């Protein structure tokens, strides 16, 4: 297909490479200027930050009202295209992207939505050409998918950053955490996250929790997060134990 990719950020950089590798023709366009934007293509993919999306849709679609446009945002609705184009959709690859590290799209799930069957058929073909995991998902459900991704990726990465803060203050490199991080990630391929949870908060070891809380006295924001997470982990563990007991008693 001929694909016009509007945007040159992290996702656009990774997506362009993936599309080119499987033989698509890709025209890369700067989203700020839209210089050289063709009048037609099989798909116009808008990969820009959420706050710029409405303006880019409005400007890019002028004179191209019958072309197929999609955006790549997890939390933005399909309806952004209404009154601008007649054929439109969402092409959301759920992954964290960096320009410095190109992702393998074959393993990235892509979630699609479209305003009609013809548009959806085209998007399914495009997604299937670069990924083994393609799903159709409504705007409403995609909001919750994106929310879950924030917990699973953005918040987890911030926890890595907090761990590095503690380590750096005592002359330890973050690299000592990598075997632990890798094993934690591997475990959830085989176990539910709640089954894989370990640490003092699960059993609510008050001696350890009190001691570690004291170590964070000079970093009050980390101390607050530590206590909130510990309490929440313990509550989840208690609920799991109650559910297990109820199930066993029922059986």
Write the layout of secondary structure elements.
Elements: E1 2-6, H1 10-21, E2 25-29, E3 43-46, H2 50-60, E4 68-71, E5 87-93, E6 110-114, H3 117-128, E7 134-136, H4 139-168, H5 178-187, H6 193-196, H7 200-203, H8 206-215, H9 220-250
Parallel strand pairs: 1-2, 1-3, 3-4, 4-5, 6-7
Antiparallel strand pairs: 5-6
Helix pairs in contact: 8-9
Task: Walk me through what this model shows.
The protein has a seven-stranded mixed beta sheet, sandwiched between helices. It starts with a strand and ends with a helix. It has 251 residues and is an alpha/beta fold. Helix 8 packs antiparallel against helix 9. The longest helix has 31 residues. Helix 2 links the parallel strand 3 and strand 4. It is 49% helix and 13% strand. It has nine helices and seven strands.
Which spans have pLDDT < 50 for at least 5 consecutive residues?
Answer: none
Portion of residues within helices: 40-55%
**What general outline do the C-alpha atoms trace?**
elongated
- How many E-type strands? 7
> So what's the oligomer here?
single chain
Rounded to an integer in angstroms, the radius of gyration calculated over CA atoms is 23 Å
Could you spell the SSE succession in H and E letters?
EHEEHEEEHEHHHHHH
Give the mean pLDDT: 94
Q: Beta fraction of the residues? A: 5-15%
Euclidean distance between termini CA atoms: 56 Å
* Widest sheet, order of strands: 2-1-3-4-5-6-7
**Number of helical regions:** 9
Judged by helices, strands and strand pairing, the structural class is: alpha/beta
Q: For the report, how would you describe the main beta sheet?
A: 7 strands, mixed
């Amino acid at each position: 297909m001929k694909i016009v990719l509007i945007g040159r950020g992290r996702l656009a950089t990774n997506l362009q490479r993936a599309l080119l590798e499987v033989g698509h023709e890709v025209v890369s366009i700067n989203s700020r200027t839209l210089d050289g934007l063709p009048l037609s293509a099989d798909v116009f993919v808008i990969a820009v930050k959420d706050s710029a999306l409405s303006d880019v849709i409005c400007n890019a679609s002028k004179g191209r009202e019958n072309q197929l446009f999609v955006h790549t945002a997890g939390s933005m609705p399909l309806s952004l295209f209404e009154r601008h184009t007649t054929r439109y959709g969402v092409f959301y690859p759920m992954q964290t992207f960096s320009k410095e590290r190109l992702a393998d799209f074959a393993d990235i799930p892509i979630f699609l939505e479209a305003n009609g069957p013809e548009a959806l058929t085209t998007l399914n073909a495009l997604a299937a050409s670069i990924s083994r995991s393609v799903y159709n998902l409504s705007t409403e459900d995609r909001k919750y998918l994106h929310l879950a991704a924030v917990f699973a990726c953005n918040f987890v990465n911030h926890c890595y950053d907090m761990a590095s803060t503690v380590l750096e203050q005592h002359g330890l490199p973050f690299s000592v955490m990598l075997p632990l991080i890798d094993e934690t990630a591997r475990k959830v391929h085989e176990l539910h996250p709640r089954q894989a949870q370990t640490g003092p908060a699960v059993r609510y070891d008050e001696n350890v929790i009190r001691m570690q809380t004291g170590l964070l006295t000079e970093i009050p924001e980390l101390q607050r997060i530590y206590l909130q997470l510990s309490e929440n982990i313990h509550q989840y563990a208690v609920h799991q134990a109650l559910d297990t007991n109820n199930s066993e008693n029922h059986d």
